[in-house]
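Summary of Year 1 activities. Much of the first year was spent building the evaluation harness for sequence design. The harness presents a backbone, in tokenized form, and records the residue chosen at every position. We chose the following record to illustrate the format because it has been used consistently in internal testing since the harness was completed.
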């Protein structure tokens, strides 16, 4: 990909990637998008899963709900890219590359951030998305089933045997990014659906994840707890960051406040350049205002 195709005009690309479904990529993507929008940033979004279109459905639900309720919700500049139906692989990839570069360049020129939601499988479009990442967020359920995509573990000693398929793909993406424009990918693995119980399995996952982070170079972020709240908001297209918007009549519970704090905590871990020198209102202040 050429430097011009990367659209380096100050836009920061945040990619949500993991070759496993059900890890919370789309929920995380939408909450990152709305949090950035509420902080005053201009945000473009890309859905690279043209078949499932989970992020696209979320955005569409949001538009329908806002129109029906007469509420002016903040919206991303959204694009969905379907996979090419051409049978010839080379021709199909050429079409997908052209569509991706055109969409990404426009969004990067017109926005402060471009948030890209990748499919839960290894596709050509997914690899294109990973290759432009400035920040890569990999949500994973807190289990060895999800960890297996990152690294292989000895079942007796619980020592890391080596990186696994997804980690190797990220390594290739990092090399491509470096060769393309000298840029680096800040890779963050986000432990999602964390249990409040101090289970033995939870401690083992934490230990091996810390070991792997040191070996292959990623940062670890606490993700979202196992809360029904995150899943039940999809039909309306709302997120936890919208619950104090004008016209959104929702009484904030302690669970809402705790979940909102988790979302804002993720943003702080991301350490995005847009927020350098800016003071974000903390959740305690927001909660007091809501009361």
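For this record, the design step produced the sequence shown next.
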């Amino acid at each position: 990909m050429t430097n011009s195709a990367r659209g380096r005009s100050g836009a920061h690309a945040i990619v949500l990637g993991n070759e496993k479904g059900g890890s919370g990529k789309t929920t995380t993507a939408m909450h990152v998008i709305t949090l950035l929008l509420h902080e005053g940033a201009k945000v473009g979004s890309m859905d690279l899963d043209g078949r499932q279109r989970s992020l696209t459905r979320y955005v569409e639900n949001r538009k329908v709900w806002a129109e029906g309720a007469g509420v002016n919700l903040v919206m991303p500049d959204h694009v969905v890219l379907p996979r090419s139906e051409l049978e010839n692989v080379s021709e199909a990839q050429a079409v997908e590359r052209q569509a991706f570069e055109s969409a990404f360049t426009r969004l990067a020129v017109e926005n402060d951030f471009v948030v890209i939601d990748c499919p839960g499988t290894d596709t050509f479009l997914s690899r294109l998305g990973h290759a432009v990442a400035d920040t890569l967020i990999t949500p994973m359920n807190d289990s060895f089933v999800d960890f297996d995509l990152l690294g292989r573990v000895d079942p007796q000693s619980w020592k890391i045997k080596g990186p696994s398929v997804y980690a190797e793909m990220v390594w290739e993406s990092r090399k491509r990014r470096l060769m393309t424009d000298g840029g680096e990918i800040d890779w963050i693995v986000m432990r999602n659906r964390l249990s409040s119980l101090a289970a033995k399995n939870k401690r083992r996952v934490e230990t091996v994840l810390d070991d792997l982070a040191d070996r292959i170079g990623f940062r670890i972020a606490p993700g979202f707890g196992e809360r029904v709240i995150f899943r039940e908001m999809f039909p309306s297209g709302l997120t936890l960051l919208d619950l104090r918007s004008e016209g959104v009549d929702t009484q904030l519970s302690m669970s809402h406040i705790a979940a909102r704090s988790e979302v804002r905590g993720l943003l702080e871990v991301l350490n995005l350049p847009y927020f350098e020198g800016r003071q974000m209102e903390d959740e305690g202040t927001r909660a007091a205002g809501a009361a």
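The chain has one domain: 3-290. Quantitative recovery figures across the full test set are reported in Table 2.
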